[in-house]
UniProtKB/TrEMBL annotation:
Pfam families: Polyketide_cyc2. Coiled coil: none annotated. Gene3D superfamilies: 3.30.530.20. This is Bet v I/Major latex protein domain-containing protein. It comes from Selaginella moellendorffii (Spikemoss). It comes from the Eukaryota. Transmembrane segments: none annotated.
Length: 153
């Protein structure tokens, strides 16, 4: 099946280990990615940092005035290569449901490059959805990277 993907990138004037200490805390997303719609984030199943654990995010839905739960399952936490992969289950937030995000850090001579991207199955019945997903998800990731920059620099 065809895939859609996108990646937000940023450069942080901080050493990779300092950035990894913050971003590798799977249950600590709200500590650095303070996005307005996100109201809470907690580990709801398993042990934080162990593949298979699930974090539950409660987010406001601005269009409806309600809220939605987003469940994210940790697939990989690779301390040696600074990679965190997870999958999203969010039936109430169609644009995020089924995404497989990856957060990756790269050492750049004392500073850190962050790549926060996603992959999702293409929807041939709704090709315009690709742009809606990119706008929503990459907007969220870019804002998270900017917040992280304020914390680590």
């Amino acid at each position: 099946m065809a895939k859609w993907n996108g990646t937000a990138r940023g450069r942080l004037a901080a050493p990779i280990e300092k950035v990894w200490k913050i971003t590798s805390n799977f249950g600590g997303l709200m500590e650095w990615s303070r996005i307005g719609a996100m109201k809470s984030c907690e580990i709801s199943e398993g042990e934080n940092g162990i593949p298979g654990c699930v974090r539950k995010i409660t987010a406001e839905l601005p269009d409806s005035g309600g809220s939605a739960e987003i469940h994210e399952t940790l697939l990989e936490l690779d301390d040696a290569n600074h990679i965190l992969r997870y999958k999203i289950h969010a039936p109430a937030v169609d644009l995020f449901d089924g995404l497989h995000p990856t957060l990756k850090l790269l050492d750049r001579d004392g500073s850190t490059e962050i790549e926060w991207g996603y992959e999702v199955d293409a929807d041939p019945a709704d090709p315009a959805k690709e742009q809606r997903i990119a706008a929503a998800v990459l907007g969220f990731y870019s804002a998270g990277i900017e917040n992280l920059k304020k914390i680590v620099e």
